[in-house]
Amino acid sequence: MDNTSFDYIIVGAGSAGCVLANRLSENGKYSVCLLEAGPKDNTPFIKIPAGFAYFMFSKKYNWGFDAKVDSTIRNGQPLFVPRGKTLGGSSAINAMLYIRGQREDYDQWADLGNTGWSFDELLPYFKKSESNSRGDSEFHGGQGPLVVSDRPVHYNISKSFIEASAQAGLPLTDDFNGASQEGAGYYQCTIKDGQRCGVNRAYLKPALARTNITVIVEAAVNRVLTTDKVATGVEFVKRGKVITLNANKEVILSGGAINSPQLLLLSGIGDQAQLQQHNIELSHHLPGVGHNLQEHADACILVKSKNHQGLTASLSGIMRMVPDTLKYFSNKTGKLANSVVEAGAFFKSREDLSRPDIQLHMLPTLYDDSGRDIKLMRSEGYSCHVCVLRPKSTGSVSLKSSDPRTAPEIDFNLFSHPDDQQVMVDGLRLVRKILAAPAFDVYRGEEIHPGIGAQTDEQLFDKAKERLGTVFHPVGTCKMGIDDMAVVCPELKVHGIKKLRVVDASIMPRLISGNTNAPTIAIAEKAAEMILSTADND
Ligand SMILES: Cc1cc2nc3c(=O)[nH]c(=O)nc-3n(C[C@H](O)[C@H](O)[C@H](O)COP(=O)(O)OP(=O)(O)OC[C@H]3O[C@@H](n4cnc5c(N)ncnc54)[C@H](O)[C@@H]3O)c2cc1C
């Protein structure tokens, strides 16, 4: 390596890291180095939208963490925590649904003392990042790098879901990201010309022609180097060799909500007692690192189908996909050019609420265990997944070992707050109501799960936990704020350490009401502007 000093060193080429690498190198004044633990995104499965399923089994492109659970959840089997490990990070393996959350989510961030982070202040960054196929409007951008498109609807069951929601007396919407989120509708996706539009494609690749940007893959950062509470660089390992880089201006951690707190802890920044336990030299006592972990708990209703139109891992199901496979490889259209989740909804679990507190994902398949239960998927069926949008339960990411190669301990602590249980149960009842509507008559077979035996709140909740999953939205572990447990300030600078920021999903003080890719990109857009606004003075 020729250069060992850069103005900005960014750790992690995910949703936030690629945005930063582009924006910080844009004016040509500063040198930027982007370090990514994973390999290049060379597999074709990243480009093919339906390739999503492949990554649930990949060890190369997915960190594939496990989270501990108590014995009542999935019979004590750990929860699978997929995270992208390649250029593009989790945006390279995600389901591509484009959702921002609700105005109130960001207004709450601002109310917590995070000046500058209200919805009205963040909306310009959502719009800056976005190129919506519907064009510019009050709520959408039409010129940004991230392509967001309406998708053709391929599965009849997606249409039936919308019809059934209306039959159940629920509202419909044609834009989850407009003035109001509430309703059932079709998801817009980050898909461009039939191929995934992750952040590598949207932000990083267009910047690579610049001479002031260096990207190093298969570079796992072990720790941030600090001297007298100032970040000076990072140490990483590439092909077994330990390499040190110096940062003239700043080190920016964009490793995501699991890895960024782990990296801070490995660097001696975190709770003193935890660091002592692992014999890590203290750089700065910051008790909030790794706490405040939030995630969308996901429960499902699985129903067998009389109608053979869905996605099935049986021989006949595979044969049904042949025409679509040919279509995709001839002109990038058909089912493979879509996310398998075409329809969904944001509803209130109880009528007296002022805004939606559950999100639904409708799948034309029997989907459980993050799509890894292939045996289940061999039967014809469909599933509707409910998630608790604003969980009150919080968990943590902590060290299992001082060895950076050892995965951290992840404990979502799901349902530790009783209010989350009630939301989930009410959500499942609402889904049952939708699935009982006439639009589903042509499909409806046996309810495999929770099963008609589960009728009381307690029975429904117990059953929900048996097949509990998550929507892969961990956030909050390096929370932005001004209280004692905050890790970064509203400018995303780590409290107590100079020249070190965290910019990724981990900084969200509260989980937003929806999928987290677009919000993470908007966070990075805003962060880049904040960083550049003082760059010449630093
Ligand atoms: C399977 C799945 C499906 C999802 N579906 C959707 C969806 O449909 N819509 C949506 O909006 N959101 C979805 N999400 C969530 C969304 O993709 C994430 O919230 C978002 O990508 C997080 O961005 P990030 O920058 O915080 O982290 P990431 O994008 O995960 O990036 C972190 C990067 O840092 C790298 N890294 C970590 N540690 C180190 C280290 N020590 N050294 C070097 N590099 C390191 C990682 O390899 C990774 O590339 C999904 C996520 C997953 C995993």
Task: Summarize the SSE layout with pairings.
Layout: E1 5-11, H1 15-25, E2 32-35, H2 44-47, H3 52-55, E3 65-67, E4 79-81, H4 103-111, H5 119-129, E5 130-132, E6 146-148, H6 156-167, E7 183-186, E8 191-192, E9 195-196, H7 199-204, E10 213-216, E11 220-227, E12 230-238, E13 241-253, H8 256-266, E14 269-270, H9 272-277, E15 284-285, E16 297-305, H10 315-320, H11 322-331, E17 343-347, E18 358-363, H12 374-377, E19 381-388, E20 396-398, E21 409-411, H13 418-435, E22 444-449, H14 457-466, E23 469-470, E24 500-502, H15 517-534
Parallel strand pairs: 1-2, 1-13, 2-10, 5-6, 13-24, 14-15
Antiparallel strand pairs: 3-4, 7-17, 8-9, 11-12, 12-13, 16-19, 16-22, 16-23, 17-18, 18-19, 20-21
The structure holds flavin-adenine dinucleotide.
Structure report:
α1 packs parallel to α15 (517-534) and α5 (119-129) packs across α15 (517-534). β14, α9 and β15 (284-285) form a beta-alpha-beta unit. This protein is 26% helix and 21% strand. Strands 1, 2, 10, 11, 12, 13 and 24 form a seven-stranded mixed sheet that branches. Strands 7, 16, 17, 18, 19, 22 and 23 form a seven-stranded antiparallel sheet that branches. It has 538 residues and is of the alpha/beta class. The protein binds flavin-adenine dinucleotide.
